[in-house]
Design brief:
- By secondary structure, the protein is α/β, with parallel strands linked by helices.
- It contains 13 helices and 15 strands.
- 38% of the residues lie in helices and 20% in strands.
- The strands form four sheets. The chain has an eight-stranded mixed beta sheet, sandwiched between helices. Strands 1-2-3 form a three-stranded mixed beta sheet, with helices on one face. Strands 6-7 form a two-stranded antiparallel sheet.
- Helix 4 crosses helix 12.
- It is globular.
- The C terminus is likely disordered.
């Protein structure tokens, strides 16, 4: 293969990876928006990418830069990446805004999730790794910091979020808007807004009675017909594996970040790779990996690796994303799930680990400030005018 042909193939790989980098304010990938101006690959493995921003001083540049580097890291032929920044001309900016508006108008699902809400999918390759417990604790930890957090229990067959968060009740509708209203729970100065199939079915009803009717539409209803209101984050407890619900959510919320929960077991880590592959095929951004049930510490402080070691670290390394943290085995975790008081609100090894993970998530998936740049506000205004 000639050098020119090899270079073209690398450029194509780069472009494909950059299609997974979404401008946080415009909601489309930077290739589609025409923000990637030049790709220059050298035979020594050096790559230079020129990216034009809507405004030169946009604070979201750091997020775009981080995502670009994470994506390019998966291309083995590239050893060094340099990113040069420039600014779109007035004419280019107008075309970019038009493209973003067009993409917004073409979205198949008009969800009730505000565009200023960061969606985080909590996923796992298989059941039994504590994914739902991690979801409940992450959502609670975010709310404890004074944030408004939506919790979507998308694990339709195995819903457990209501019990883990200590919330009971039935979903009701807003007569004026004709939308479903989430159940609300205060956590310190923050708020949880919770939607789950558990608020719609009776405990004595088998899932077999509603599975066929609900499966293809339930999550879509939760996104289209729920009055979510303003939120900083939407945390989604995904079903385990890579089925129809997972792929549907990826299509409905294409700007979501995903966090993969695994255990130290190499087998579980291997299965989790399939979830990550699905996410990448839909150009979802994988924000990091959480290793649950990492180890057990006895009363003397001695650590035991009951389920092996290294699974989370290896998965994170293979995906080129950070290991957000490791959660030890702690009986207070299951106690908290049973009583509806998430362990993150208390003290101990698991609580400390989860609090640290929440801090890492906020750093990896910062909430959106709609006033950070002018482009987002401009686009939303234009869409409002166009639809009025």
């Amino acid at each position: 293969m000639g050098a020119d042909q090899a270079g073209l193939e690398i450029n194509e790989k780069v472009i494909n990876q950059l299609r997974g980098v979404v401008d946080p304010e415009l909601g489309s990938d930077i290739v589609d928006l025409g923000m990637v101006k030049k790709i220059d690959f050298k035979d020594n493995g050096d790559l230079k990418i020129t990216i034009a921003l809507t405004t030169a001083g946009c604070p979201l540049k750091a997020q775009i830069q981080k995502d670009v580097r994470l994506r390019i890291k998966s291309i083995s032929e590239i050893s060094h990446v340099k990113i040069e920044w420039t600014e779109l001309t007035d004419e280019e900016r107008a075309k970019t805004m038009d493209r973003a508006r067009f993409n917004l108008s073409q979205e198949d699902v008009v969800t009730q999730i505000p565009r200023t809400t960061k969606s985080i999918m909590i996923a796992s390759g298989k059941g039994g790794v504590g994914k739902s417990s991690v979801t409940a604790n992450i959502a609670t930890g975010l709310a404890a910091k004074g944030l408004t957090v939506g919790v979507l229990d998308a694990d339709i067959w195995g819903f457990s979020i209501p019990q883990m968060l200590g919330v009971e009740g039935r979903l009701a509708g807003n007569e004026e808007t004709k939308k479903i209203v989430p159940l609300v729970k205060s956590v310190g100065s923050g708020t949880l807004k919770i939607i789950s199939m558990g608020f719609l079915v009776n405990e004595d009803k088998s899932s077999l009675n509603w599975r066929g009717l609900i499966l293809n539409r339930a999550v879509r209803h939760f996104l289209e017909d729920v009055e979510w209101g303003d939120m900083d984050y939407l945390v989604i407890d995904m079903p385990p594996g890579t089925g129809d619900v997972q792929m549907g959510l990826a299509k409905m919320l294409p700007r979501s970040d995903m966090i993969v929960v695994t255990t130290p077991s190499k087998t579980v880590q291997t299965v989790a790779t399939r979830v990550a592959s699905m996410a990448q095929s839909y150009y979802l951004r994988i924000a990091g990996v959480i290793e649950n049930m990492s180890f057990f510490v006895n009363e003397e402080g001695k650590q035991y690796n009951i389920f092996g070691s290294g699974g989370g670290e290896k998965l994170a390394h293979d995906l080129g994303v950070p290991l957000l943290g490791s959660i030890p085995i702690d009986p207070f975790v299951s106690d908290g799930s049973d009583t509806g008081i998430p362990v993150i609100l208390g003290e101990g090894h698991a609580a400390d680990a989860l609090k640290s993970i929440v801090d890492e998530i906020i750093a990896a998936v910062p909430k959106i400030n709609p006033l950070d740049c002018t482009a987002h506000t401009s686009m939303e205004t234009s869409v409002t005018i166009a639809n009025s």
